Amino acid sequence: EAQVTQNPRYLITVTGKKLTVTCSQNMNHEYMSWYRQDPGLGLRQIYYSMNVEVTDKGDVPEGYKVSRKEKRNFPLILESPSPNQTSLYFCASGKNQPQHFGDGTRLSIL
Amino acid sequence: AQSVAQPEDQVNVAEGNPLTVKCTYSVSGNPYLFWYVQYPNRGLQFLLKYITGDNLVKGSYGFEAEFNKSQTSFHLKKPSALVSDSALYFCAAATGGGNKLTFGTGTQLKVEL
Fold this sequence. Notes:
Chain A is built from no helices and 11 strands. With 110 residues, chain A is mainly beta.
């Protein structure tokens, strides 16, 4: 079954404690991307990757890092999380654009 | 900068009636346009996209969208709504290779019996 898998699904943590949200896809897609969803703002793109070792900033990259060492994985790293990064996060993959989304990771930064 | 507007926060329609969810966009160059649907506690599901060609694009679950260049619109339509279509719908736009997407704020569709 075609899947984009995110972990964890839920996380409550504290300001400044580094965290990583993993994303893995099993469809051999070149394109992967991260979004955050906030009420009234829709989805905003954080980072995207067109292939291994190729990443680029979206509209709201501040405070986030990504890496693409393997085609299937695209982790999102928050080195020093802050409360304004409390949000619902989605990973997506596709041939050139997002077509398959994960079920989301709800992060709460206290 | 590119932008996408979904002017209606909510659309209500009776089951069996046609539905339209509106989207207008502002991008430089030729647009890549997308519609996605989100059910509660789930990720987005891709419905359809326009890159080039026929202005009427057919997608999943009986949905279609019409690209109108002069009005910079890409409205989502379905001839006969189902209660199960009730969900949150997002329009998105991009240029270039279509990989840097800008999403609208979403429209909640409610289909009632």
